[in-house]
Automatic annotation (TrEMBL):
GO MF annotations in UniProt: peptidase activity
InterPro entries the record matches: Peptidase_S78_dom (IPR054613)
Pfam families, A to Z: Peptidase_S78 (PF04586)
Annotated source species: Flavobacterium fructosi
Domain Prohead serine protease: 37-139
Listed name of the protein: HK97 family phage prohead protease
Keyword terms, alphabetized: Hydrolase, Protease, Viral release from host cell
Any one biological process term the GO annotation gives: proteolysis
Amino acid sequence: MAKPEYFVFNDENVRNSYGFHINTLGINMDRFKDNPVMLNNHINSNENVIGNWSEPLKEAGLLKLKPHFDEETNLGKDVAGKVDRGYLKGCSMGIIPNWDSIQKVGDRLIMMECELAEGSIIPVPSNKGAIAIYSADGSEVLKEEDVKSLCLSVSEKLNSIPENLNINTTMKKIILSVATLMALGFKDQPADGMDTQDVEAKVLELSGKLTSLTSENEGLKLAAQTAKEAQETSVKLAATQKVDLAITQGKIPADKKDAFVQLGITSPEVLETTLNAIPAKTVHGLGITPQGGNGGVEVKTMEEFQKLSVAVQLSFKNDNPEEYKKIVESIK
């Protein structure tokens, strides 16, 4: 049997051996990340360090970590072997609790905040939510009777609150700075602070306005982008039409079309002025002599005809049918 990829440190839906639940998101891991020690059965001594942990993952109310055993030591190798063979399956976390953070939610006592001190490999416990409680400085594991006494004290305190009183809102106060009061739209605050319920209502109101403004802003940005693209398309189309006409009039050669179109996109006025300054070429009954690379030329051969733009070719065929017939007969 392979070692498990992850061990579950905490499941916030499981009541631990002391009678309360631990909020997974409220587990502070700053100290633990600096020293993610793995102990043997919560025995805090050098010889009982059997490895460490990595890649903490909080998801779906669970806290999970990857184990790494120190198999260079006899104890580490022995424990790793028992885990590998399926004889040891239990994992327990040692925490430094924040007793003031315990709340009563329905029939549950929930510790909202604590600090992770270590994670231990333990025999399968009778209660899979068993934990070890450390002193405030993290130096020693508290005795079971001391922890139960603390839990009983907290439980009695919470149970003394009337059931029809919402301790999560009406019992809590918060002191706000002047800037925060102004930002939330409060004129002043009582000496003992603002009710969290009122503050939360203001925050939710502002959040709703922010969401609405963000959506409106995105709509305006999209409309502006659409208008910009339409304007760019219109400018390009107008420039292309002017350049095509200039080519038809023999003012510019067809191979310069892209350059003149780009000029029109950059500055429609400059394109207009430039094209107006170039005289059209007039010749034959066509009234137009297309401009080749060396100035005006007469259309006498099919090769010269094919160098014309499509628009000029059509005009030439329509306006000069006899000359076009001669050109066609010359290639037979």
